[in-house]
Each structure stands twice: as structure tokens, then as C-alpha cells.
Amino acid sequence: MDQQTEKREGLKIVREFKAPKTLVFDAFASPEAFAEWWGPSGSKLSVESFDFRPGGKTHYKMEGNGHVMWGLFQYQNIQRADLLEFINSFADAEGNIITSPFPMDFPLEIFNRITLEENNGITTLTIQGHPINATQAQIEIYHSIMDSMHQGFGGTFDQLEAYLGKVQG
């Protein structure tokens, strides 16, 4: 897929992990695991609330480089070890959706779909994301920072890889 097609269709990242898909899925499904690897490298994540079920929410705080940011996952669809769909937003300390801390009109809500496929002990994680309930200007901003999002998720998935290595011994 070329860069222009990717930008029209939204974010898509594919990453392989040397771990069974149940273990990869479980890294999303427990607050202790999630806090160990989610977010930018060098940040500290604490989970304020965690309700991992369709209709549930996870509210978390990230601290790093002298900044504090809050995030919110609103779970839409969960199929154990196969699929996770959620809406991700920036939030305040009370869990209300807020505008991003960046100096741009970033979308308030991003729909994410994660699929997991396992073959010979290798799990392929595919994440796809796109803005929802966004203005055209917000959609353009989202697409304009696609490279930064790839880098951010790359670092996050590096941390997931390290976490999976640790729990597998």
C-alpha cells in the first residue's frame, strides 16, 4: 500500500511478535500488563480505571518529559485473542473527552481496530485507525501526522515486544 492510499484510508500498522496471540491479547486485557507497555517510550503510565468489556472504558494517565496527559479507551467490540475495537481520545483527570494537548485541531475520537493472527507461534498484530465524528479540517490534521503516529506506535509496540519477552521468560 503506498503512502497516499494509506493516508486516504487511515492508519494501518502491521507488527509481528514471537508470542501466542492469547498472550498478546492479554497484554491489552489486564490493567497491570497494559500499564507496563502502552504509550511512548520513557513515559510512565498509570491506569485510573479499567473496565475491559464492550461498553467499558479504560482511563489512564501518562507522565513523561515534565508533561501529564490523560487518555480514554471506550471499548466497542472484544473477541478474545482475535479482535479489539475501541475509540481512543484524550481526556482530563475525570475521564471527560477533551481536545488534544497539541497545538492543532486533532480529532476528538479515533476508532481503532486491532486484529491478531497466529502462525507457528508468531502473532501478527494489525492496527487500523481513523477519525470519527471529525470535521474535514481535523481529518486533514490526522492524515498530516501519519508519520509521527507510525513512529509513536512503533515505540509502543517495541515496549509490547519487551513486555512479552519478559512474561515468557
Automatic annotation (TrEMBL):
CDD domains: SRPBCC_CalC_Aha1-like (cd07814)
Domain of life: Bacteria
Short name of any one Pfam family annotated for the protein: AHSA1
Domain Activator of Hsp90 ATPase homologue 1/2-like C-terminal: 18-165
Entry's family note: Belongs to the AHA1 family.
Protein's UniProt name: SRPBCC domain-containing protein
Native source species: Dyadobacter pollutisoli
Native organism taxonomy: Bacteria, Pseudomonadati, Bacteroidota, Cytophagia, Cytophagales
